[in-house]
TrEMBL record:
It comes from Arabis alpina. This is Fe2OG dioxygenase domain-containing protein. The keyword S-adenosyl-L-methionine does not apply. InterPro entries: DIOX_N (IPR026992), IPNS-like_FE2OG_OXY (IPR044861), IPNS-like_sf (IPR027443), Oxoglu/Fe-dep_dioxygenase_dom (IPR005123). Keywords: Iron, Metal-binding, Oxidoreductase. The keyword Secreted does not apply. Belongs to the iron/ascorbate-dependent oxidoreductase family. One of its GO terms (molecular function) is metal ion binding. Residues 216-317 form the Fe2OG dioxygenase domain.
Length: 368
């Protein structure tokens, strides 16, 4: 009893000391640590890596790469085929990659450079943005669930709330301000296009998902995964599903993202120029489990340079949004009754934030 108490007090003060540096995991790497502090040590169950038997064959089917033809399909058949591919992927794993998505590769590179640039600025500059008030338009933090998770992850993140009410440009850091604004517009256009195809994949009017505001809110999570000196002891991001309708992820060519399917982890293979798209919990809820929001995680970075990724979460999160969301009427029937009650996005997000990324799913809490 007494030992547990002492151990947990130690942990809390170590978490606080880390948090108070205000320069995240990158700060530890800058200080030259060769062993990771024990607050980052994960349990063996978190670190376990069950692999599919013939991974090279299976993962290709699990996370397909879909060519969006620059969002301008040459004929109706090509368009129909793409919708079918998106439908299959959304039903099977909820994950797919897109190429020829219409966002210039140059902008993708500039966005990754912007995130890298922010995190590689001097500690004095970074510190000014660091905090845990997630209601702010811009916040730089390390481990949003630092004090509630079992172990910390080898990752720093800055979060920008871009829509429905865009931040004042002066509230964004000068080093990546312009590119954040430009990329968020482009990512929103792409998401609106994807929501049209997803609506059709569900047999709905193409505007359905946009009309119910699925693309109205945008929370951008810009992750920085520094190289980890002991990657076998920690994780870059623990297992979770996304609390969005849809996530558009701009990945790095350094791998690390894994999707959990049928008890196995499938690596998402880096595809140059591609964006990773995944169904979030809110889309699973409104489709009454037709489309699935798969759990995924990120391994600690084993490379010698930092891994950067930008996740655009389409959701209004904790922002004011009175709209109620439940399974879409057209998708339910006597044989397929609604599995979830109607909720607001705020209710969903509050539940999620209180719980943290503890490895258990959030959706069951809202089941009827
Ligand atoms: C996320 C996420 C994956 C990555 O932000 O929810 O899963 O590769 N990110 O950073
Ligand atoms: Ni995620």
């Amino acid at each position: 009893m007494e030992t547990t108490k002492i151990a947990s007090y130690d942990r809390l003060s170590e978490l606080k000391a880390f948090d108070e540096t205000k320069i995240g995991v990158k700060g530890l790497v800058e200080a030259g640590v060769s062993k990771i502090p024990r607050i980052f040590h994960h349990s063996s169950s978190n670190l376990a890596n069950p692999r599919p038997i013939s991974s090279s064959v299976l993962h290709l089917n699990t996370i397909p790469t879909i060519d969006l033809s620059g969002r301008n399909f040459k004929d109706a058949i090509t368009r129909k085929n793409v919708i079918q591919e998106i439908k299959d992927a959304s039903e099977n794993s909820g994950f797919f990659q897109v190429t020829n998505h219409g966002i210039s590769l140059d902008l993708l590179e500039k966005m990754r450079d912007g995130v890298r640039g922010f995190n590689e600025q001097s500690p004095e500059v970074r510190k000014q943005f660091y905090g845990r008030d997630f209601s702010k338009d811009f916040v730089y933090t390390s481990n949003f669930d630092l004090y509630t998770s079992q172990a910390a992850s080898w990752r720093d993140t800055f979060i920008c709330f871009m829509a429905p009410n865009p931040p004042k440009p002066q509230d964004l850091p000068p080093i990546c301000r312009d590119v954040i604004i430009e990329y968020s517009k482009e990512a929103t256009n792409l998401a609106e296009f994807l929501f049209q195809l997803l609506s059709e994949a569900l047999g709905l009017n193409p505007n359905h998902l946009n009309d119910i505001d699925c693309s109205k809110g945008l929370r951008m999570l810009c992750h920085y995964y520094p190289p980890c000196p002991e990657p076998e002891l920690t994780i870059g991001g623990t297992k979770h599903s996304d609390s969005s309708f849809l996530t558009v992820l701009l990945p790095d060519l350094i791998e690390g993202l894994q999707v959990l399917r049928d008890g196995y982890y499938f690596d998402v293979p880096p595809v140059p120029g591609a964006l990773i798209i995944n169904v979030g919990d809110l889309l699973q809820l409104i489709t009454n489990d037709k489309f699935i929001s798969s759990e995924h995680r990120v391994l600690a970075n084993r490379a010698t340079r930092a891994r950067v990724s930008i996740a655009c979460f389409f959701t209004t999160g904790l922002r004011h949004n009175p709209r109620m969301y439940g399974p879409i009427k057209e998708l339910v029937s006597e044989d397929n009754p609604p599995k979830y009650r109607e909720i607001t996005i705020k209710e969903f997000t509050t539940h999620r934030n209180a719980k943290g990324l503890d490895g258990t799913p959030d959706l069951p809490h809202f089941k009827i």
